[in-house]
Amino acid sequence: MQELVCAVDVGTGSARAGILDRNGRLLARCEHPIRMNRPKSEHAEHDSEDIWSAVCISVRAAVEKAGVSPGDIRGISFDATCSLVLRDGNGDQVSASVTGEDRWDTIVWLDHRALAEADECTATKHRVLDHIGGVMSPEMQIPKLMWLKRNLPASWARTGHIFDLADFLTYRASGSFARSQGTLTCKWTYLAHEEPGWKPDFLEMVGVGDLLERGGLPDRASPIGADIGALTPQSAEELGLTADCRVGIGLIDAYAGALGVLGGFSADPEGLSSHLALIAGTSSCVMAMSENPRPFSGGWGPYFGAALPEFWISEGGQSATGALLDHIIRWHGAGGEPDAAMHKRIGERIAALRAAEGVDFAARLHVLPDFHGNRSPFADPHAVGVVSGLTLDASFDSLCRLYWRTSVGIALGVRHILESLNRDGSAIETLHVTGGHTKNPVLMELYADVCGCAVVEPLAEDAVLLGTGMVAAAAAGLFPSVADAAKAMRHGVRRHEGNENMAARYDRDYRIFLEMHRQRRVLDEMA
User: Fold this and answer.
1) N or C: which end of the chain has fewer CB within 10 A?
2) Quick check: 9 and 55 in contact, CB under 8 A?
3) Per-residue pLDDT for 186 more than 90?
């Protein structure tokens, strides 16, 4: 019998499953789409049964593709977006939608319906805010729960269990109501480094004092990688695995990526703090791990044990990056469907135009990429995007110019976060980029040229699945701990060299980028 694990990653648009061996080698990976409902502006919803079905389809397909026996899968764990799932006391779906349909029982992480409630949380100035940069984001769970209680009181009254999506998946797999230290700490204002972790006075202040009872939430969170039992007979059948497979407490998707990229450095805690993970896809997260807490301006955290047990992690990010480039393509008259072929076509044309026009290509076009707020370093969900330098040109080349300068703005935003981290005491030397952006040569070139540090790409085929595989391996007992699994399963990296000849140009762009932030604040004050 082989010693393999299954890692499941549920993102914004699909569920993916990977089969890995104890060396971290990805034997097979399969994916299945999930549905999203958009009943109103700023509202986004999933159907958790559709998600579970997609997970089962993906796992079965991955096992078949790997050519292994279901009995070879010793452990399974899940990572997911920080979406919010509602169930009643019997485990049935409860609507989180203004449509009233119970199937739409999950609020997607990117849903911004609770902006006003997030502002109310910020106004409390409660000390739980010290671990989320001082500003509550509408992407976190407490404001969404406030919104639900106020706007869908019938759903609130029916609710018996409320889950972060990763915890819902471990519940469906094992029947356990345990909650991850990662999900509760990062998104629910649970302070894992304190006893007790919940702060009832804060929950009372914002009107959800009954949350622990209403949500079926435990007094204590469970550490990532904890073995919470075997698959139930029903879930084993649905997943195409066996009831001997152990289930490990999971984590948020970006944190799984951070674990897959940075976890192997845990043997050198001092050196670990010089590395930064950039998990970049629809949105972008930057993750820094350290032996001691290191807060930074506009960052979320530091969180204790939210990825690697016994280590602190801080998160910054950009709410829309890949999604912003897709938006630019749809928005422009010469655009269309932002599929891989369109991105490739634009990238090739950008290369030709740059070769012809040199460093002055689109030099007067500037983009602040905050079209979905500024997560870091300003922690301002109300921030808006800005484009300066438009003309009447509506050709495909003008789309390529706008795409290029939007990409520059995204890279400058990462530099802005890096400078904030270093100003607040970090000493980041290496940026590890993983996720969908590694397939975009425009962005990868810009990260290397713009960010001012070494840029590397993990050789692991899928760092997020690798991180979740490390968690599953620990839960299955293949290694004594998540840290040991991370050391054994880590992969090498490939370096992306920057172009020193572009440094002066991007320094100029960065000064303009900062000035545009200042001018946007001035305009907001005038308005």
Assistant:
1) C
2) no
3) yes
